[in-house]
Design goal:
With 185 residues, this protein is an alpha/beta fold. 36% of the residues lie in helices and 17% in strands.
Length: 185
Amino acid sequence: MLRHNCSLCNGVNRRHLIRLAGISVFASSVFNQSQAAAISSPKRTEDESYMRLALEEAKKGDFPFGAVIVRNGQVVATGHNTGIKSNDPTAHGEIAVIRDFVSRNASSELKGATIYTTGEPCPMCMGAILWCGFGRMVYGASIKQLSTRLGQIMISSSIIADAAQENKIEITGGVLGSEALALFK
């Protein structure tokens, strides 16, 4: 049997390594499905005006993340990050705007709506966006760009959407992204 002595493998259980390898193979098969749920969508003429509203919302937040929900050409909810003020680590801009909307409307009315958010959603927020049934999500700064300013979980929204194949969503990124990123001082 070939042996080696590296610090990474020292003391690591062989079964644990085999289990991790199996999980890796499973995860890659899930994320490489041919029926992707994320549909890359081009920027539309109205996107910048709605993103400007999200940027204004972001300026009110503990961290500069703001979001706006649009249905049938109307802004129906706004929200921003309040995680520090509310002592709630889930109080991201996207969660706040969804909570604002459902406090006054049935959650089923989110189906097919568009959410504008100043930063590409984290996995928690993207999961919520998918569960709500939004038809489209538009973001400003990407996860990669945001990671230059603060800690991020480096998983793109399209990877999460692709793992939820029953929930198709159009994704448009980079709308006023440099302006969104500039809010981080």
